[in-house]
Write a structure and sequence with these properties.
heterodimer; A: MetI-like fold; 71% helix; B: mainly alpha; MetI-like fold
C-alpha cells in the first residue's frame, strides 16, 4: 500500500548492502550469501509470526463468542472454546499454532469449525484464492517491470525536459490516489461510459481467472496505475544517480558513443537500484492487491482476507497474513540474488 | 511551512487542499439534508433538492459528501501526531542511547514491522480487537511509526556528530533536554518533509479501511465507505461514486503535491536551514 513511505531518504538509492561475511575456503560465496539470506528470512518470518499472533491476542476478546454471535448458548460457546483450544494460555496456543505450521498445517478456520464444516482446515480454503491472486500479481508484475524501466529511463535521460515533467507529474498525481479510487474511476470510465469491460471480476468455482481475460483488464489496469508510478520514479532516481558517476563522464570524454555509454556504463550500473525498486514495487503491488480484489470482487487471497476480518475469523486471518509475509520474504531474497548475479562488482564484494 | 509554497506545484497543492478542507469542515454546516433520512427513491440521478442524486438508500448524496470528509481527515491527522510521538521518542532515543544493544533491539523490531504491508498489519489487528475510531488511530500509528523512527534515528545520528551535541553531553544535559533542545530543532525540516508523506499514508490507510467496511460503520457518512456502499447503484446514479472518489482524489493529490514541493525546496537549499 505505501511502500513508498518506507523509502529512507537518507539511504543511498539502491545500494544492495552485501554482507561482509568472511568466507571459508572452498565454499561458494553466492551459495553462502543465499544461505545467509534464507536464514535471515526465516528469522524474520519467526518474528513476524510472534507479532501477528500478539496483534490478534493482546485483548482478551473471545473469538468463540464473536464468531457464534450474541444469541449462542453458553454450552455452544464453551464447546467451541475447547475445540479451538481457547481455554489454554496464549503461549500454549502460540505453541500449538507453530507446531502445526512446522507440519505444514495452517490451522482451522474458527468460522468453519463453528459451522461444523466437513473440512475446516485453512489450507484447503486458501489454495484456490492464493493461485488466483498469484495469477493477478504475476501478470501485473510482468507488465510493470518493462513499463517502469522504459518510463523511468526516458524520464532520467530527459531530466528537466518536458518528457521528464510529463512522466514525473503524471506519476506524482497517479501515485497519490488510493487503489480503490483509481478502480472506481476506471469502472466509471470503462463500464459506465464506454461499456467495454465488466465492473466485477467474478470467477465461477472451479474455473480459472484466465478463462475470462476481459474481466481481468480493469483489475490489472488498477494495479498498474497504483504501482507503476512508484516503480518508474525509483528507476528514474537510480538512472539519474548513475549518470552523475565519474565513470560515465570519463567514458563520454573518452569519445565512446553516447548510446554505448548509456547501455554499457550508465544503465548497467543502475540495474541493482532498479531491481531493488522492482522488489519494492512488487511488494507494493501485493499490498494494493488486497484493496483491488475488494473493488472488483475478485476471488483472491485479499478478498478472502477482508471477509475473514469482517467475520472475525482470526485463525484464517493469521494464516493468510503469514502466507503473504512469506511471499514478501521470498521476493526480497530473489531480488538480492538477482542483484548479485547481474552486477559483477557486488559479487566480489561478497568475499 | 511557507517553504512548500515556493514551487508552482506547492501553490496548486495548497489551493486544492484548502478547497477539500473547506468542504470537509464547513460542509457539515451547510449540508441541505440530514445524512440518514431518505429524500427520494434509492439510486436516483439528480432530482430537485438533490443535485447529486440519491444513494442506495435514497439519501442525499450531496449532503453525505459534505459530511463525509471530517472523520477520515481527523483520524488521519490524529494518528500522524501519535506516529511522531512514538517515532520521535524511539528514533532519537535509539540514536542517542549509550546502550548499543537497546538500539539494536529497537531497530530490529522496526525492521520486522516494516516487512509487512501496513494495510495487512492493520487488518490483522482489527480482526483481533474489532474496529473503532480508537483502534484505527492507534493501529495506523503503530504501522506508520517504524518507517518514521528509522528516518529520525538516521537524522539524529547525522546531527549527533556535530560539536554542539558533544558539548551538551559534556555539560551534563539529560536525555530529554538533549532531545528537545539540541536534536529536535535540527531535524525538524526533515521530520516535516517526511511527515507530509506519512500523512498521505495515513489518509490512504484510513480511507481504505473505510472502503473495505472495517473502518467507519454505517450509517455514518464517509467518502471511502460511500464508494463501497453505492457500488450497487453504479448504473443508476454513478454520481454517488464519482463525487466521493473525486473528493478523496483531490485530497490525496493536494497533500502529495505539497509534500513533494516541500521535499524539493529542502533538497535545493541544502539541509533546509
Amino acid at each position: 500500500m505505501n511502500a513508498e513511505l518506507e523509502q529512507d531518504p537518507l539511504a543511498p538509492v539502491g545500494v544492495a548492502a552485501p554482507p561482509a561475511a568472511r568466507v571459508p575456503r572452498g565454499s561458494h560465496p553466492v551459495l553462502r550469501f543465499l544461505l545467509r539470506r534464507c536464514a535471515v528470512g526465516f528469522l524474520t518470518l519467526a518474528a513476524v509470526s510472534v507479532i501477528l499472533f500478539a496483534a490478534t491476542n493482546i485483548l482478551p476478546g473471545d473469538v468463540a463468542q464473536t464468531v457464534l454471535g450474541k444469541e449462542a448458548t453458553p454450552e455452544r460457546v464453551a464447546a467451541l472454546r475447547s475445540e479451538l483450544h481457547l481455554n489454554e494460555s496464549v503461549v500454549a496456543r502460540y505453541g500449538h499454532w507453530v507446531e502445526g505450521l512446522v507440519q505444514g498445517n495452517l490451522g482451522d478456520s474458527a468460522v468453519q469449525v463453528a459451522q461444523n464444516a466437513p473440512d475446516p482446515s485453512v489450507g484447503s480454503m486458501i489454495a484456490t484464492p492464493l493461485v488466483n491472486s498469484l495469477i493477478l500479481a504475476l501478470i501485473a508484475s510482468i507488465l510493470i517491470i518493462p513499463l517502469a524501466l522504459v518510463l523511468g529511463t526516458i524520464a532520467a535521460l530527459r531530466a528537466g525536459k518536458s518528457t521528464d515533467y510529463a512522466v514525473s507529474y503524471g506519476s506524482l498525481i497517479l501515485g497519490s490516489l488510493p487503489e480503490f479510487v483509481v478502480g472506481t474511476f476506471l469502472i466509471l470510465l470503462f463500464f459506465n461510459e464506454l461499456d467495454l469491460y465488466p465492473p466485477v471480476a467474478l470467477v465461477p468455482p472451479g474455473a480459472s481467472p484466465l478463462d475470462n481475460p476481459e474481466a481481468l483488464v480493469l483489475p490489472l489496469l488498477t494495479l498498474l496505475a497504483a504501482s507503476l508510478p512508484f516503480g518508474a520514479r525509483q528507476v528514474r532516481a537510480g538512472v539519474v544517480e548513475s549518470l552523475k558517476e565519474d565513470y560515465v563522464t570519463v567514458a563520454r570524454l573518452g569519445g565512446i558513443p553516447e548510446r554505448r555509454v548509456l547501455s554499457r556504463y550508465a544503465l548497467r550500473n543502475a540495474l541493482p537500484a532498479s531491481i531493488q525498486a522492482f522488489a519494492q514495487t512488487i511488494q507494493y503491488l501485493f499490498g494494493g492487491i488486497i484493496v483491488v480484489e475488494a473493488v472488483f470482487a475478485y476471488p483472491g487471497l485479499g478478498n478472502l482476507l477482508t471477509n475473514a476480518v469482517l467475520t472475525r475469523d482470526v485463525t484464517l486471518v493469521l494464516a493468510i497474513a503469514l502466507v503473504i509475509a512469506a511471499v514478501f520474504v521470498v521476493i526480497n531474497i530473489v531480488a538480492d540474488l538477482l542483484v548479485v548475479f547481474l552486477v559483477p562488482k557486488l559479487r566480489t564484494g561478497l568475499k | 511551512m511557507p517553504a512548500a509554497l515556493r514551487t508552482r506545484r506547492g501553490v496548486l497543492g495548497i489551493i486544492v487542499l484548502a478547497f477539500v478542507l473547506a468542504v470537509a469542515f464547513v460542509g457539515p454546516f451547510v449540508a441541505p439534508h440530514p445524512i440518514d433520512v431518505p429524500v427520494g427513491p434509492p439510486g436516483s440521478g439528480p432530482i430537485p433538492g438533490a443535485p447529486l442524486g440519491t444513494d442506495f438508500l435514497g439519501r442525499d448524496v450531496l449532503s453525505r459528501v459534505l459530511h463525509g470528509g471530517v472523520s477520515v481527515l481527523t483520524v488521519a491527522a490524529v494518528s500522524v501526531l501519535l506516529t511522531y510521538a512514538l517515532a520521535l521518542s524511539i528514533g532519537m532515543f535509539a540514536a542517542l542511547t549509550r546502550r548499543r544493544w537497546l538500539d539494536t533491539l529497537l531497530m530490529a523490531t522496526v525492521e520486522v514491522l516494516i516487512v509487512l504491508p501496513p494495510l495487512l498489519l492493520l487488518l490483522v489487528l482489527i480482526s483481533g480487537v474489532g474496529t473503532s475510531t480508537a483502534v484505527m488511530v492507534i493501529g495506523v500509528a503503530l504501522v506508520l511509526f517504524p518507517g518514521a523512527a528509522r528516518i529520525i534515528r538516521a537524522a539524529t545520528l547525522e546531527v549527533g556528530t556535530t560539536g554542539y551535541i558533544e558539548s551538551a553531553i559534556s555539560r551534563g544535559e539529560r536525555m530529554p533536554a538533549l532531545m528537545r533542545r539540541e536534536v529536535l530543532p535540527n531535524i525538524t525540516p526533515m521530520v516535516l518533509a517526511d511527515g507530509g508523506v506519512r500523512f498521505l499514508g495515513a489518509i490512504f490507510l484510513v480511507a481504505s479501511l473505510n472502503f473495505l467496511g472495517v473502518g467507519s460503520q454505517p450509517p455514518s457518512a464517509d467518502w471511502g465507505l460511500m464508494i463501497s456502499e453505492n457500488r450497487q447503484i453504479l448504473q443508476t446514479n454513478p454520481l454517488a461514486l464519482l463525487a466521493p472518489a473525486t473528493m478523496l482524489a483531490l485530497l490525496t493529490i493536494s497533500v502529495n503535491l505539497l509534500a513533494d514541493s516541500y521535499a524539493h525546496t529542502l533538497g535545493r537549499s541544502g539541509a533546509g536551514r
